[in-house]
């Protein structure tokens, strides 16, 4: 069972890379790009709809929402684009992972804004 789980995780990871590469492909329609970008950003983001510290429910997004989003995004893409991106994804996984400093910066800025807002709110409540 552990091997099956590892294979499933590996397949999920490859599918995320396929979606990442498909987002950059100019043959993909704009609405598919938007949906694909949202799925990839959500999958790689540390921010979840349901926080992981909530027992059982916290992992629903990791087990259901992310795979469902990947499945829907892949259904929106033409087969030829998926095949092209699958080859590129395999090369990326073997060589190196893509780095998106812009997305990482946005996530850090959002966390800093939430932290700053929380600090100001607590400070106002204490005074």
Give the secondary structure arrangement, pairings included:
Layout: H1 2-24, H2 30-44, H3 60-76, H4 79-95, H5 101-126
Any overview of this molecule?
The chain is mostly helical. The protein folds into two domains: 2-96, no CATH class; 98-127. It is built from five helices and no strands. The protein has helices at 2-24, 30-44, 60-76, 79-95, 101-126. It is globular, with a radius of gyration of 18 Å. The termini are far apart.
What is the gist of this entry?
The chain has 127 residues and is an all-alpha fold. 77% of the residues lie in helices and 0% in strands. α1 crosses α3.
Radius of gyration: 18 Å
Mean pLDDT: 84
Main sheet, how many strands, which sense, barrel?
none
Net shape: globular
Structural class: mainly alpha
Beta-strand percent range: under 5%
* N-C termini distance: 55 Å
Number of strands: 0
Bin the helical content: over 70%
Number of domains: 2
**Unreliable residue runs:** none
What count of helical segments does DSSP give?
A: 5
Sketch the topology as an H/E string, one letter per element: HHHHH
InterPro entries: DUF1232 (IPR010652)
Organism: Priestia megaterium (strain ATCC 12872 / QMB1551) (Bacillus megaterium)
Membrane topology: Multi-pass membrane protein
Subcellular location: Endomembrane system
């Amino acid at each position: 069972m552990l091997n099956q789980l590892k294979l499933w995780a590996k397949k999920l990871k490859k599918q995320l890379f396929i979606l990442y590469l498909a987002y950059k492909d100019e043959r993909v329609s704009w609405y598919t790009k938007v949906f694909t970008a949202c799925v990839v950003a959500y999958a790689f983001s540390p921010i979840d709809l349901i926080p992981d510290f909530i027992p059982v429910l916290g992992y629903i997004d990791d087990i259901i929402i992310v795979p469902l989003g990947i499945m829907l995004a892949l259904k929106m893409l033409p087969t030829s684009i998926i095949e092209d991106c699958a080859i590129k994804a395999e090369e990326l996984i073997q060589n190196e992972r893509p780095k998106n400093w812009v997305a990482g910066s946005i996530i850090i800025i959002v966390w800093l804004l939430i932290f700053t807002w929380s600090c100001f709110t607590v400070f106002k409540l204490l005074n």
